[in-house]
């Protein structure tokens, strides 16, 4: 996330990634969520927005002494004036959404054509071509620059509800590198989304994220891994990193480790990960190779042949019945009022009246009492087992386990991930 002063600067920043992808013979490149919104920033020419952009220039690694001084002054003034770049962006989209859309389409179409690579462009707040409604959308471009399709985020987060409307469906996009299904933001957390895309013939699931909290990132990573393995498809997650000027004054930086996935059976460590960034805040280019022949062979030979044993007609009927039952359940955490008496008179004091049914309260898992917990390896040693004698005092076992835990290697001393990539700043031409 860098705030470009003009569209040419943004184009050159994107071309750094495209050049590296080209050198690695990539045929599909995936950008993260919300980075496409930067196409609108050059149109923000008011004084306050220019302050924020000037401050961003001064915080860059390669900033000159003058840029750092001017950026520090601009940041102080922007903070004093409480400049809200997100509000300025929303105001621009109210009056010039069509202009932003035109810049976005021209920019990424030219990049795809220049490098002859299929591009999943970063999502941005754009008007939907079907109805003109503003949505968080990502567009897919073919290697000739042609538009192959687009996908809008369906399940909006609270921070997006004030600027965009939700999409209405998930559709597979046909590309020369396979059929792609896009999941933006929290869409990836819902199992039904992956299944819908899989039944439409998707071969690749793409997740675009812009996370500001570690727990948010971890949920999205777990989501794409689950959707990929549930449906035996390839997967990729692309996360935005860097300073966050978009989400108000109390904001955290964008973070996340982008990664390329494959079903566990097709990965060297059997964990579903082909390659993943080494830390949460560095930008880079990851590449991995997908074997589509092996994927189709897996569909036929796996011990969990999902596509053979779970028919579409059967699944449709089961899901329909399931969601019908869910809608009839009481809302968790909400106290339902009992219906009023039919005659309009409370007969609680009438001994002859039938007893009022007791109110049913839903108990969630967190409300249940904790009866006990296991704090040592189970089962405990027994007489005659591996030469161990019976344990007379269980406290000895607990002390032993505590000692082992204290002497265990720290997380920082564990093996370093093998799949780290070179830093972008070291790859400048």
Order of H and E elements: HEHHHEEEEEEHEHEEEHHHH
Biggest sheet, spatial arrangement of strands: 6-7-8-9-10-11
Look at the structure and give the mean pLDDT. Answer: 79
Global outline: globular
First-last Cα distance: 20 Å
Q: Which structural class do the helices and strands define?
A: alpha/beta
Number of helices: 10
Cα radius of gyration in angstroms: 27 Å
Tell me what portion of residues adopts beta-strand conformation. Answer: 5-15%
The number of distinct β-strands equals: 11
Q: Ranges with pLDDT <50 over ≥5 residues?
A: 332-344, 383-394, 397-421
* Major sheet attributes: 6 strands, mixed
Helix amount: 25-40%
Report on this structure:
With 429 residues, the protein is of the alpha/beta class. It contains 10 helices and 11 strands. It has helices at 7-23, 47-58, 65-80, 85-115, 191-199, 214-231, 292-301, 306-309, 312-328, 394-407; strands spanning 28-30, 118-120, 124-127, 134-141, 147-152, 172-175, 178-184, 204-209, 234-239, 259-261, 273-276. The strands form 2 sheets. A 6-stranded mixed β-sheet has the order 6-7-8-9-10-11, with helices on one face. A hairpin with a 6-residue loop joins strand 3 (124-127) and strand 4. Helix 2 (47-58) crosses helix 3 and helix 5 (191-199) runs parallel beside helix 6 (214-231). The longest helix has 31 residues, at 85-115. Mean pLDDT is 79; it is low at 332-344, 383-394 and 397-421.
């Amino acid at each position: 996330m860098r705030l470009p002063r003009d569209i040419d600067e943004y184009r050159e920043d994107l071309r750094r990634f495209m050049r590296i992808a080209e050198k690695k013979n990539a045929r599909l490149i995936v950008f993260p969520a919300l980075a496409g919104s930067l196409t609108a920033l050059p149109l923000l020419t008011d004084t306050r927005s220019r302050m924020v952009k000037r401050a961003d220039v001064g915080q860059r690694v390669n900033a000159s002494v003058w840029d750092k001084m001017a950026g520090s002054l601009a940041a102080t003034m922007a903070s004093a004036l409480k400049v809200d770049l997100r509000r300025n962006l929303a105001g621009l989209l109210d009056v010039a959404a069509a202009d932003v859309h035109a810049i976005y389409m021209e920019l990424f179409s030219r990049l795809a054509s220049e490098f002859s690579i299929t591009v999943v462009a970063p999502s941005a707040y754009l008007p939907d071509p079907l109805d003109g409604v503003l949505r968080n959308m990502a567009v897919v471009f073919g290697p000739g620059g042609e538009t192959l399709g687009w996908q809008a985020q369906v399940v909006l987060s609270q921070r997006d509800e004030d600027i965009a409307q939700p999409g209405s469906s998930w559709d597979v996009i046909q590309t020369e590198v396979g059929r792609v299904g896009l999941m933006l933001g929290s869409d990836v957390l819902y199992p039904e989304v992956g299944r819908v895309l899989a039944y439409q013939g998707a071969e690749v699931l793409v997740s675009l994220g812009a996370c500001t909290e570690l727990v948010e990132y971890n949920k999205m990573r777990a989501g794409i891994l689950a959707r990929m393995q549930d449906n035996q498809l390839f997967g990729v997650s692309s996360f935005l990193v860097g300073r966050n000027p978009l989400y108000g004054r109390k904001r955290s930086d964008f973070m996340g480790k982008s990664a390329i996935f494959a079903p566990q059976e097709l990965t060297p460590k059997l964990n579903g990960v082909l390659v993943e960034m080494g830390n949460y805040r560095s930008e880079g280019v990851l590449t991995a190779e997908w074997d589509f022949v092996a994927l189709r062979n897996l569909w036929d030979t796996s011990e969990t042949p999902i596509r053979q044993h779970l028919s579409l007609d059967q699944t449709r009927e089961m899901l329909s019945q399931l969601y019908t039952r869910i809608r009839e359940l009481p809302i968790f955490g909400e106290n339902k009022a009992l219906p009023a008496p039919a005659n309009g008179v409370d007969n609680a004091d009438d001994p002859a009246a039938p007893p009022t049914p007791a109110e049913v309260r839903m108990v969630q898992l967190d409300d249940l009492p904790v009866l006990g917990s296991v704090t040592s390896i189970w089962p405990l040693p027994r007489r005659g087992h591996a030469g161990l004698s019976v344990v007379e005092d269980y406290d000895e076992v607990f002390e032993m386990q505590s000692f082992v835990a204290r002497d265990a290697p720290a997380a920082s001393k564990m093996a370093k991930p093998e799949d780290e990539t070179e830093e972008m700043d070291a790859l400048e031409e």
